[in-house]
Amino acid sequence: MSSPLTRRTASVRSVLTRPWVGPLAVVTVVFLVLSLPPYLGLDPSRSRVAIPEDRPLYYPMLATHIFLGTVALVTGCLQVWPWLRRRHPAVHRWSGRVYVFGGVLPAGAAVLFVAPFGEFGPAQQTGNTLLAVLWLLVTVAGYRAARRRQFVAHREWMVRSVALSFSIVANRLWIVACLAVFTPEALTGATPDPATFAQAVGVSTWLSWVVNLLVAEWWLQRGRFRERARGGTVRARREAGTPAGA
C-alpha cells in the first residue's frame, strides 16, 4: 500500500512530466474571459461576428455554439488531465459525458448551421464546416470506443477531439500571423483590401485545426513509439535473465 509521501511524489512527477496541463487551463480561462462577454447579454448588436439579416436563426445558433463550446473547452481540460483520470475516474467519466453530450455534439451541430454562412467567403466557410464535421465524428468515435471498453482507442480519439476543440483558441494566434503576412496594414488600424483580408481569415481558419490535428497525431505517434520501445526493453531484460537452455 502506497504511503502519502509516495502518492505526493507521484503527483509531482506527473505534473513535471506533463507541464502543459497548467498552461492549457490558464490559456482557456484567459480566452473565455476575453471572448465571452459580448455574448452574455444575448444582444446580436454586440456580436463580433456579422449576423446575416436573412438568417433569423443564425444568432441563436451562434450563441448556442459559443456557450456549449465553452463547456467543451472547460471539460476538455479535465479530460486530458492524467492525474484526474487516475485518481478520480468517476469525475473523469462524468466530465467526459458532459464534454460529449453537453459540449461537442450540440456545439458542433450548431456550428454546422453557422459555418456555411461565414462572411469571409468559401475558404472560411468550407474550413469551418469540415472542422465541425470532423469534430463530431472523432468525438462520437471516442465515445463509442469507451463504451466498448477499448480504452487505448478511446484515448486517441479524444486527444484528436480536444485538439479540434481548441482550434478556436489557436485561431486567435493564426489570424494575427496571417494578417501580418497577407495584409499587415490591418494590424495598424488601416483599412485592408476586403479580398486580401478574407484570404487571410480563410487561411487562418484552416491552419487553426489542421495544425492542431497534426500536432495531436505527432503526440500519439510519439506515445506509440515509446510504448514499443519500452516493450522491447522489457522483453530484452526478460530474455537476458532467462537461464540458458530453458
UniProtKB/TrEMBL annotation:
TM regions (residue ranges): 20-42, 62-84, 96-117, 129-146, 158-182, 197-220
InterPro entries registered for this protein in UniProt: DUF2306_membrane
Pfam families reported in the protein's UniProt record: DUF2306 (PF10067)
Keywords: Membrane, Transmembrane, Transmembrane helix
Keyword Transmembrane found: yes
Membrane among keywords: yes
Protein name: DUF2306 domain-containing protein
Classification of source organism: Bacteria, Bacillati, Actinomycetota, Actinomycetes, Streptosporangiales
